[in-house]
Amino acid sequence: MMTKPDAPARPNPLQRLGCLLLLIAWFALLLLPCGLFYLAANGEIRLQHRDIPQPHAHPLLLISLVSEERERGLRIETSAVVASQPALCVETAVRFVLWQSSGGDQNARYCDCYARGADESWLLHDTSAGTCQPPGA
């Protein structure tokens, strides 16, 4: 009497997810040298916000090289919109990853709040150190 061959076992969905995550991590590792070459050639990697005042002053993500006499490393700057009514507040965090440093904590966080002007353009209303406290909060 002939028996039916067993059907191949279907992979577990978690196994597939694990393989996908491993594949993404592998490609990120392979692309890392390309990012480092781009950083070395241009001095910075910048991603911009779209609809905020002074987008160059408040990058979504900025990674730049620090090559000073006493400090060497990376500067990582991020910003996020905290409040949008009635004022627009943008909180910016600057962090340093230094492999050569003169000492001291150089990381910073500050908040810029903008208000609408008479011509509907954004005008800088207030700048403060630390986290944003939107008006009316």
Q: What does it look like?
A:
It is a single chain. With 137 residues, the protein is α+β, with helices and mostly antiparallel strands. The chain starts with 12 loop residues before the first helix and ends in an 8-residue tail after the last strand. The chain folds into two domains: 14-42; 48-129. A six-stranded antiparallel sheet has the order 1-2-3-4-5-6. The chain contains one helix and six strands, in the order αββββββ. A hairpin with a 4-residue loop joins strand 3 and strand 4.
In short:
The protein is α+β, with helices and mostly antiparallel strands.
Helix/strand layout:
Blueprint: H1 13-42, E1 44-47, E2 61-67, E3 72-83, E4 88-100, E5 108-116, E6 122-129
Antiparallel strand pairs: 1-2, 2-3, 3-4, 4-5, 5-6
Q: Structural class of the helix and strand makeup?
A: alpha+beta
Order of helices and strands: HEEEEEE
Q: What fraction of the residues are assigned to beta strands by DSSP?
A: 35-45%
What is the number of helices? 1
- Compute the number of strand runs: 6
Distance between the termini: 80 Å
Q: Roughly how much helix do the residues carry, as a percent range?
A: 10-25%
Gyration radius from CA atoms, angstroms:
24 Å
Give average pLDDT, whole number. 85
Overall morphology: extended
Biggest β-sheet description: 6 strands, antiparallel
Q: Give start-end ranges of low-pLDDT stretches.
A: none
Instruction: Tally the structural domains.
Output: 2
How would you write the strand order of the largest sheet?
1-2-3-4-5-6
